Structure formats: C-alpha cells, structure tokens
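User: Teach me something about this protein's shape.
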Amino acid sequence: MSAKGLFVEIYVTGNKSIHGYLTSIMNDYFVFHSPAYKIMYLSMNHVKWLIPYPENTTPYSLINQNSPSKTGTTALSRSFEEQLKKLESQLIIIDGGYHEEKIGLLQKVQNNKMTLKISKGEKLYRNLEHIKTIQFPLFKLENTLTPKNEVLLLKNRNKQKE
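Assistant: First, the predicted structure itself:
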C-alpha cells in the first residue's frame, strides 16, 4: 500500500508528530502538506514512523479546501540537496524553528551544507544530514515591509484619515 496522497501522521523527532498529506516521495525526502504547517520537506533520514489514517479521514475535520490538491505544484528535484538549492534567497524554517538559529534566509547550498543568515545578521553553516524538516513562513518575503513600502503605507493611512 502506498501512503502517497493519504492523510498520515509522521514522527520525525522530539515529542511531536506532524499530521498531513504525503504529496510526493523523492529519492531522499518527502514533500508533505500539513493543514497546520503548509508545505514541508522532510528528510527520509530522520523519519521514525509513518501511520496512515483510515481512508476518507479529513484532517482536523476540515473541508477539502485545505487539501493538497488545492495547492500549487512546482517542479521537484530528486534529491533533498538539489531541492534546497531552489530555495536559495528565501526565508526558511528548519526543524520547526524552535530556536532562532533555525529560522533565516537560505543563502547557499553546496557540498551537502547550507549557509543560513539568521535574524541578527549572523551566517550559520549547517550540514544537510542533520536537517529533519524545512518549511516556509506563512507569508512571502516580498510582502514584508521595506523602508519604501513603509513610507507608502504611512502616506496611504494619512490620506484615509483626511
């Protein structure tokens, strides 16, 4: 039986499992869609167990609006490292982001290592073998406030007050 497309529970590490849909199975990672965490990449090296839910089980009693079929599809690389190269210059969250050193701008992926620039501006280097999950913030970086956008926002607010 294949778990692809099924609602499953996956245990990776710590005291928490992740619930969602296994959308793609690549050479060394899964693409996973969780209603709570959205799209995630999970390294197969760290998956401890995977339990499929009974057929027709809906996660969190949600209506199908949050099913993975409604999410966009992008071309996937066969390997975890090659897929992460596609994420260079994007904000990512590593292993749930429970430490500030696990959230940052992915600058470079090369030779099974990544360079991550964290919030304080420091560069950190991580071995990809130690990364369990990659996920993305619930907002896109281009939607964040820049000095130019902030000035425009303030001007628009002042016009609305008039």
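Now, about its shape. Confidence is low (pLDDT under 50) at residues 141-153. The domain at 7-143 is CATH 2.30.30.600 (SH3 type barrels.). If you'd like, I can walk through any region in more detail.
User: That's plenty for now, thanks!
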